[in-house]
Amino acid sequence: MGAEAIEGLLDEGRTFPPPQDFKRQALITGAEVYDEGNTDYEGFWAREAAELDWFREWDTILDWQPPHAKWFVGGTLNVAHNCLDRHVQAGHGEQVAYHWEGEPGDTRTITYQQLLQDVQRAANALKELGVGRGDRVAIYLPMVPELPTIMLACARIGAIHSVVFAGFSSAALRDRINDSECKVLVTADGAWRRGSVFPLKENADEALTETPSIAKVLVVRRTENEVSMDAERDVWWHDLVPDQTADCPPEHMDAEDLLYLLYTSGTTGKPKGIMHATGGYLTQVAFTHRYVFDLKPDTDVYWCAADIGWVTGHSYIVYGPLANRATSVLYEGTPNFPAEDRFWQIVEKYRVTQLYTAPTAIRAFMKWGDEHPAKHDLSSLRLLGTVGEPINPEAWMWYREHIGGERCPVVDTWWQTETGAIMISPLPGATTTKPGSATFPLPGISATIVDDRGQEVGVPGGGYLVLDRPWPSMLRGIWGDEQRFRDTYWSRFGEGIYFAGDGAKRDQDGYFWLLGRVDDVMNVSGHRISTTEVESALVSHPSVAEAAVVGRSDAQTGQAIAAFVTPRGDVEGDEALAKELRDHVAKMISPIAKPASLLFTHDLPKTRSGKIMRRLLKDIAEDKELGDTTTLADASVVDAIKGRYLDHSKSQP
Ligand code: ATP
Ligand code: MG
Question: Are both 495 and 529 inside the same structural domain?
Answer without folding.
Answer: no
